[in-house]
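Box 3.1 A note on notation
Throughout this textbook, protein chains are presented in two layers. The first layer is the amino acid sequence; the second is a C-alpha cell string describing backbone geometry. Keep the layers aligned when reading.
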Amino acid sequence: MVRQNTDTFISRSPRLTSLEFFTVTPIIMLKLYLLFATLLLTISPAHAASLDGARVLTPEVAQYERAEIALAADPGAGNPYDPNSLALDATVTLPSGRELRVPGFWFQNYQRSLKVPAAKDAARVELLAPVGKPEWRVRFSSGEPGLHRVVLALKDATGTRQSAPLTVKIVTGPRRGPIRVSSRNKMYLEDAAGRSFFPIGQNLCMSPDREGTYFYERILPKLATNGANYVRLWQEYMVQGDLKKEPSPGNGSNAGFPLETVMTGIGKYDLECAWKLDTVSDLCDRHDIKWQLTFEMVVWWNRKMPHRWKRNRYNAENGGPVVEPIDYLTKPECRELAARRHRYSVARWGWSPNLVAWEMWNEVDNLDGFTTEANTAWHRDLCGRLRALDPFKHLVTSSWRDAGMFALPELDLVQAHQYWPIEIDAAQYSVQDSDHLMRPFGKPFFFGEQGMNERFELDPEGRVFHDALWASALSGAAGAGLHWHWNTYIEKYDLYSHYRPLAKLLRGADWPAHPWKTMKITRPSLPVSLQVHGLAAPDRAFVWIHDPLAYRVVKGAPERGPAQAEASVNVAGLAPGNYKIEFVSTVTGETIGTDSQPVRPLRHFGHGIELKPPKFWGDTAARIIRQGRQWPKE
C-alpha cells in the first residue's frame, strides 16, 4: 500500500484512470493557481505596470467639450510620433453602445510668459517653459449625455497592452456639435443640430514677429466682437532669407503651428508649437470662432524660394528622400510621413467641434513639377487615410485651382484663392470667380484667401476689403471670402468693423432651407454705374447695391465719387405676394429705411419689385421677405 499525505490521495493501483490521476485537493488547486500567476508576472512584469499611470483629467464635461485622459508611460527606444513604432489608441464606448477609436498623442505641457511683462501688442515676446514630464494624452468629445467607457491600448515592439476601463461622464451642454455639409442643401453648411453655419472671417495663419499666442489673444476678441466667426490657421512658419539665421519658429519671423520643422528634422515634432495651437484652439472656443487647419505649404516645394528649398529636410541634398519637389507627392515614404502628421493632428485637435475642416494643401498647384495626375493620386490616398482615421468626421478640403482634385469625392469643400491689383473692381472680380469655381462641383465653396496685391496705404478705410467681403458673401458661396492680409492691412488700419454689418444682415438666415439663386435684375440699375449683387429664394432675398465709382484707384491715386440720392433697382425672381423691404446700412448694420411692395408688372421689364434705397455713398443693402414670413432667430 502506498503512503498517502495530506496533499493527495492518488491511488498507485495498476489500474489507474486518467480521471483518477488528475484528481487533486483544493490545496493543490490553490498552489497551481499561484504558480501560474507567478509565471505570468515573470514573463511580462513591465507590461502589467506600463499602463498603471492612466488618469482621467476630466471626470465630467458637457456635450462636445474636451474630455482628456493622460498616461504616464516611458516610450523607451520607441518613437512616439511613429505609430509603427509606438502607438496609443483608445476605444471609447458611448452610452448608445457605439464605439469610437481615438488615437493618442505625445504631449508636453508648457507655461507661457512675456519676456518683458510691460511690453505691448506686437512688441511682446512670448516665452515658453516646460511644465512636468512629457506623457501620452487622449482627447475626445461626444454629443451623447451619459457615462463613457474608455480603454487605452498601447502598442510597441513587444505587443499590445490594455488599461483597465476608465469612465468619463458627459452632461447636457449648450454646444451644437461639429459642422457638416447640410443634408438639406449640399451647397451649404450646418452644425450637428441642423442650424445653418455661414463662415465670415479671415486668415490668421501665423503670428507676426515673436508675439506667439498673445497675438491671437489680442486679435480673436476683435473678430468675435464684430461678428466674425471663422479663421484659417497653418501648420507653417516663415524662415529668414539669410541662411545663417536660425530657421526655427518664432525666431523673429511669422510663425504658425508646424509639427515638423528644420530643427526637429523628419518624423519628429515641435511640441512647443503644438502646445501653442492648443492655446489658440481654446481661445477660439472661448470666443465661439470656428477654424480650419492647413497641413502642407507649397513654399517648401518651390525653388523660387531658395532659402526654403535649401533648408528643406526632405531635400536629398540634406539627406532626405526627395530629389525633385514633385517626388514629395509620389514617394510612398513621403506619403507615410504625411499620414503620421495627420494622425497626430487628429489625435490632438480632432476632438474640437469648432475645428471645421482639415485643409490638405495650401496652393498645391504651385509645387515645382506639379501634375494633376500626381496631385489627384496623392489626395485620393491621403484624404482616404485621413477620413478613415478621424472618428469625428471633420470636413476635408484643399486649395488652389486643380479641378481634378476638387472633383474627388474625398474632398468635401472647394476652396480657391483670389488676388487682384487695387485698380480692379474687387466686387465684380469676386462674384465672377465665385460663379465659375463653385458651380461645376456641387459642393460648398468659399474663398480660403482673398486680397489685393499690396499698396494698402491707398485704402486705409478698407473699401477694397469691404467690397470683396460683401460680394463674396452674396455670390451664392457657402461663406464669405477669408481675407489674407490680416496684419499689414486689417490689423494695421483696424478694419474689423467691416464684419459687423454683414453679420447683422445675415444673422438667422437658414441657408440650406431655401433654393437660393443669384439675383435677377430686369434692367440696368439707375444710375447705370451701379452694380447689384444678391441672392433670391421664392419668398425672400438679400440685395447688395454697390457703386464701383464711389472709391477707385486710377493711375495710382484714389478717387472718390458722389453719394447716390435717387438710386432705383428692379428685382425679379420672387413669387407673387406682398413683401417687406428693410434697407440696412453697410457701415453700421442698422435699419435705415423700410418699405412694403407687392410683386407687380414692371413696365417693359416683367414682374418684380422696385427698390428705392435711402441716400447712400459706396453701397447699401436690403433684405426682403414675404409678408407673414419671418427671418429665423439665431
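Confidence is low (pLDDT under 50) at residues 1-24, 30-49. Residues 1-43 form one domain.
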